From TrEMBL:
Domain DUF3868 stretches: 11-95
Domain of life according to the entry: Bacteria
Taxonomic source organism: Bacteroides caecicola
Protein name: DUF3868 domain-containing protein
Length: 488
């Protein structure tokens, strides 16, 4: 593919005479027809006109086009243009017949009926990276009969040719917005902790004991919030019982089972509107995970590192683990642990599982603001599409989808596409950092890097996406490589 960078126009030269007794440059017109980069070379096309030019009969005006770097650090001469006076032309013709004559680098302007004819000038030189934004100067050297220098001048005829062109970011393709799959049944759940108090080694329900009434009312309010909502249908309510580990595992398991079962039976009576078969008890038993987390956070706990070491060493024998904790010295290590952290391990968790009815777009708009977790990815997408492209409302809806479904590749892709459409590649890169696991997302990262003018990184991502099967990435990689080959 040919990359063409063209600058056309006419500059009638106004000579900036550096040091000259004689100069003809201000009587020469040069039209810059085209300056192109073609593969690994640069072509220059100029039209020289010499209307009314009269050159002293003994003189030769040598015009030297020069491509000069924008910062002046490099330059390359192009073939010269020679305009000769009548006698000087006759002398040079005789010299050209001599075996010692060396051909000149350039073209001699012809005369016809005493007038210098226009010259269509074409030159080719090897491409170098510094030529981006270069200037074309014409320098003049006037010599007399003995080749002595009679004058010198220079002028710029074409500023800033071969401008550095960045790739057209809009030419790089990426995936479209995708409609997420529908959830056949929108199952959701909420979990909350209760600390219903039991007397030592007992499992009977006593609402009047300590602050049990308050705890039961808190649980009742949360369950009632779900049970009374017409949009929700309770599927199950689980009460999970946990214990602290000071007794044996077998004893604690019986205690956890009996306590959670008693609590379920009590709650069934409080909520007759929830069918009894939807209630069930579980007993995960000793809550070592909770204990480990509490000890890790308690940086001032005596013997903290020793306690964590014991918890890590005996994963398959919990009774031995508990015994080793009791054996830690000084004895105040276990005493403090028991007093400070064990009471919080005796708890019951409520897990309410429920189905959510489908919502219309209008209803889903309201839910998106109040309880977006009750919407499916497809419902959120429909809300997003109900707003104009690039609108804040569409972006916010798609952001919510990613927040609720952070591992959903379609949600990630839709938000990334929306960011690109809104012209925000940095948001794309932030969003997909460490999350571009599909070929489509990897290609989107590449396109975002193109928009951010990070071309080498973009190429690496296009290669990765193409290897993973993204046809758009293969096309983008070819487009990028063509630009690189014609630019560098």
């Amino acid at each position: 593919m040919t990359n063409r960078i063209i600058l056309s126009g006419i500059l009638w030269v106004t000579a900036l005479v550096a040091a000259a007794q004689v100069s003809y440059l201000d009587r020469v017109a040069v039209e810059t027809k085209a300056v192109r980069k073609v593969d690994d070379k640069v072509t220059v096309d100029l039209l020289w006109q010499f209307n009314g030019l009269k050159v002293n009969t003994q003189n030769q005006a040598e015009f030297i086009p020069v491509l000069v770097a924008a910062d002046g650090t490099a330059e390359t001469e192009l073939p010269h243009v020679f305009v000769e006076g009548r006698v000087r032309r006759w002398v040079n013709e005789r010299r050209e017949l001599s075996k010692d004559w060396s051909p000149r680098n350039g073209e001699v302007v012809r005369r016809h009926k005493g007038k210098y004819m226009p010259l269509n000038y074409h030159a080719e030189i090897p491409w170098e990276a510094w030529m981006h934004g270069a200037n074309i100067e014409v320098r003049e050297r006037v010599t007399g009969c003995a080749n002595c220098l009679n004058g010198y001048a220079a002028t710029v005829i074409a500023p800033s040719v071969l401008p550095y062109r960045t790739p057209d970011a809009s030419a790089f393709r990426f995936a479209s917005l995708v409609t997420p799959a529908e959830e056949e049944l929108k199952m959701r759940s909420i979990t909350f902790r209760g600390r219903f108090q039991f007397r030592l080694d007992k499992y009977d329900i006593d609402p009047a004991y300590k602050d049990n009434y308050k705890k039961l009312e808190e649980a009742r309010a949360k369950i009632d919030e779900v049970a009374s909502n017409p949009d929700l249908n309770i599927v199950s309510i689980e009460v999970a019982g946990y214990t602290s580990p000071e007794a044996t595992v077998a004893y604690n398991e019986r205690l956890a089972r009996n306590r959670s079962t008693s609590l379920v039976n009590y709650m069934k009576k409080r909520f007759p509107q929830v069918p009894s078969q939807k209630w069930f008890a579980s007993w995960p038993n000793e809550d070592w995970d909770e204990l480990r987390e509490a000890v890790e956070k308690d940086t001032l706990l005596p013997g903290r590192e020793q306690i964590l070491d014991v918890i890590s060493k005996y994963p398959d024998n919990l009774d031995l683990r508990e015994q080793k904790l009791k054996e830690l010295r000084p004895a105040t290590i276990y005493e403090t642990l028991y007093r400070k952290h064990y009471p919080y391990l005796r708890h019951n968790d409520y897990i309410i599982r429920f189905a959510v009815r489908p919502f219309t777009v209008e209803e889903a708009r309201v839910q998106l603001l109040k309880q977006p977790e009750r919407l499916s990815a497809a419902e959120i997408y429909r809300v997003a599409m109900s707003y104009p492209e690039n609108s804040p409302e569409r972006i916010q809806a798609l952001q919510t989808a990613v927040r609720l479904y952070p591992s959903d590749d379609i949600a990630l892709q839709n938000l990334a596409v929306a960011y690109l459409q809104a012209g925000d590649p940095l948001e794309v890169l932030s969003l997909l950092d460490g999350r571009a696991h599909t070929a489509s997302l990897q290609n989107i990262v590449g396109v975002a890097l193109i928009h951010a003018k990070r071309y080498e990184e973009a190429g690496l991502w296009f290669e990765k996406a193409a290897a993973a099967g993204a046809s758009e990435a293969r096309t983008n990689l070819q487009l990028l490589n063509e630009w690189i080959s014609h630019t560098r």
